[in-house]
């Protein structure tokens, strides 16, 4: 199991819509990973199962898209990944030892270029609650995009 190295991709416009399925297709084409994942494909995701790295299903938390031929981190994709880490859409099943590193990876984008509030305090609070056995992933229906319930970068 592994957290991808932080790539410091340039941020797309904050108002850019996020369509994870469409972004996945563009990232595959850009990376030349039509048949199987490769390092470029991996780097567009925050986490992957290194024991199954030849399977597309091993890659989680896509945060990037190809915009005008260039890979960019998309703020709404980062928000979606942050929300999933906090239990949205049923959360994500990651090894406990990787959770803080994934949150740190996402927090770097939240802080980048002074855009919006830092996710750091929310991540620290969530980590403390999880450590105390108090944080339970949300089982409620996912919020609609743009509903105001997303974590803002």
What structural keywords apply?
single chain, 153 residues, alpha+beta, 3-stranded antiparallel β-sheet, 37% helix, 12% strand, disordered C terminus
Describe the structure.
The chain has 153 residues and is an alpha+beta fold. The chain has one domain (2-131). Helix content is 37%, strand content 12%. The protein contains 5 helices and 5 strands, in the order E-H-H-E-E-E-E-H-H-H. The protein has helices at 20-31, 39-43, 75-85, 96-111, 120-131; strands spanning 2-3, 45-48, 59-62, 64-67, 70-73. The strands form 2 sheets. A 3-stranded antiparallel sheet has the order 1-2-3. Strands 4-5 form a two-stranded antiparallel ribbon. A hairpin with a 2-residue loop joins strand 4 and strand 5. Helix 3 packs antiparallel against helix 4. The longest helix is centred in the last third of the chain and has 16 residues, at 96-111. It is globular, with a radius of gyration of 15 Å. The model is unreliable at 115-120 and 132-153 (pLDDT under 50).
How do the helices and strands line up, and which of them pair or pack?
Blueprint: E1 2-3, H1 20-31, H2 39-43, E2 45-48, E3 59-62, E4 64-67, E5 70-73, H3 75-85, H4 96-111, H5 120-131
Antiparallel strand pairs: 1-2, 2-3, 4-5
Helix pairs in contact: 3-4
